[in-house]
Design goal:
heterodimer, A: mainly beta, 6-stranded mixed β-sheet, 4-stranded antiparallel β-sheet, 0% helix, B: mainly beta, 5-stranded antiparallel β-sheet, 11 strands
């Protein structure tokens, strides 16, 4: 079946602009995660959605970052007033509801964001 | 901040040789996972070992976990050029299964 998809693949923006990154999880997966990967910080957890529970936002680096998940499926990560340090690859992952499998995360190809 | 420390940072071997990568972590965990990444893009899950397990095998992969030393190792036997990639360990701890904490990764190059 189809894997996790992310769009756009690449995004170049100017400092100060807002960007929206989209993630389509695997159908039927109830958990959705966002991470970012940058040269200086490695792979960092950003936010985690699980079903109808309140999301775990503990990894969001500032209030310029927000994410929502509509209808328990598609998620959008929004970065407002982008800064050059936001340049990174943003990775989305999802996992199925079965408890024993929930721990395995299936990653999308990522969105490479460059802030000029 | 990254919980996991991996070594070596880079490993270069010939096809057919074994590759061993190590990972250390700092806090208690529910499980430890290894992922592979090609060309800086999406990660592929390789293997998961739970905190009450000591060793696990999957094909040419062998993972060990020593919770007393807070360390794990990934062994790839009979390596192939196609195994060239970055390898990351990730830990899941507490009640939040969703929050994986990744190591810095090992860049493996397998020469044909």
């Amino acid at each position: 079946g189809a894997g996790v998809s992310q769009s756009p693949s690449n995004k170049v923006t100017e400092k100060g602009k807002d960007v929206e990154l989209r993630c389509d999880p695997i159908s039927g997966h109830t958990a959705l995660y966002w991470y970012r990967q940058s040269l200086g910080q490695g792979l960092e957890f950003l936010i985690y959605f699980q079903g109808n529970s309140a999301p775990d936002k503990s990894g969001l680096p500032s209030d310029r970052f927000s994410a929502e998940r509509t209808g328990g499926s598609v998620s959008t990560l929004t970065i407002q007033r982008t800064q050059q340090e936001d340049s990174a690859v943003y990775l989305c992952a999802s996992s199925p509801p079965t408890s024993s499998l929930r721990e395995t995360q299936y990653f999308g190809p990522g969105t490479r964001l460059l802030v000029l | 901040s990254q919980q996991g420390e991996e070594d070596p940072q880079a490993l270069s071997i010939q096809e057919g040789e074994n590759a061993t990568m190590n990972c250390s972590y700092k806090t208690s965990i529910n499980n430890l996972q290894w992922y592979r990444q090609n060309s800086g893009r999406g990660l592929v899950h390789l293997i998961l070992i739970r905190s009450n397990e000591r060793e696990k095998h999957s094909g040419r992969l062998r993972v060990t976990l020593d919770t007393s030393k807070k360390s794990s190792s990934l062994l790839i036997t009979a390596s192939r050029a196609a195994d060239t990639a970055s390898y990351f360990c990730a830990t899941a701890g507490g009640t939040s299964y969703g929050k994986l904490t990744f190591g810095q990764g090992t860049i493996l190059t397998v020469h044909p």
